């Protein structure tokens, strides 16, 4: 059984790139044109009030956020 992987399309040339699951959250390079690929997250990331702005400002794709507070 092969390890999990994900497909990311290159924002520059559109080539599909297979990214191993253990590279989650790391930037990569397109196998075709060598342009930078954005980091990919397949699992929820816990972000604090201190890291929220920097994560949102540096992430190039849409972000789905769920907020909660203890009662």
Task: Tell me about this structure.
- With 71 residues, the chain is mainly beta.
- The protein has one domain: Rubrerythrin, domain 2.
- Helix content is 10%, strand content 20%.
- The protein is built from one helix and four strands.
- The strands form two sheets. A two-stranded antiparallel ribbon has the order 1-2. A two-stranded antiparallel ribbon has the order 3-4.
- A hairpin with a 6-residue loop joins strand 1 and strand 2.
- The longest helix is centred in the C-terminal third of the chain and has 7 residues.
- The relative contact order is 0.18.
- The mean pLDDT is 88.
Itemize the secondary structure elements and their pairings:
Layout: E1 5-9, E2 16-20, E3 28-29, E4 36-37, H1 52-58
Briefly summarize what is shown:
This protein is mostly beta strands and 71 residues long. It is built from one helix and four strands.
CATH class: Mainly Beta
Sequence of secondary-structure elements: EEEEH
Distance from N terminus to C terminus (CA atoms, Å) equals 44 Å
| Helix-residue proportion | under 10%
Structural class: mainly beta
Radius of gyration: 15 Å
CATH topology: Rubrerythrin, domain 2
* Shape by Cα distribution: elongated
- What percent of residues are in strands? 15-25%
Mean pLDDT over the full residue set: 88
**Secondary-structure arrangement, i.e. CATH architecture:** Single Sheet
Count of distinct structural domains? 1
Low-confidence stretches: none
Number of strands: 4
Largest beta sheet: strand ordering: 1-2
In DSSP terms (H or I, runs of 4 or more residues), the helix count works out at 1
Sheet with the most strands, sense and barrel status: 2 strands, antiparallel
């Amino acid at each position: 059984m092969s390890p999990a992987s994900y497909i990311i399309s290159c924002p520059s040339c559109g080539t599909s790139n297979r990214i191993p699951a253990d590279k989650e959250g790391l930037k990569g390079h397109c196998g075709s044109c060598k342009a930078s690929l954005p980091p990919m997250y397949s699992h929820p990331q816990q972000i604090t009030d201190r890291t929220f702005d920097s994560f949102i400002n540096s992430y190039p794709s849409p972000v789905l956020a769920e907020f909660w507070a203890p009662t």
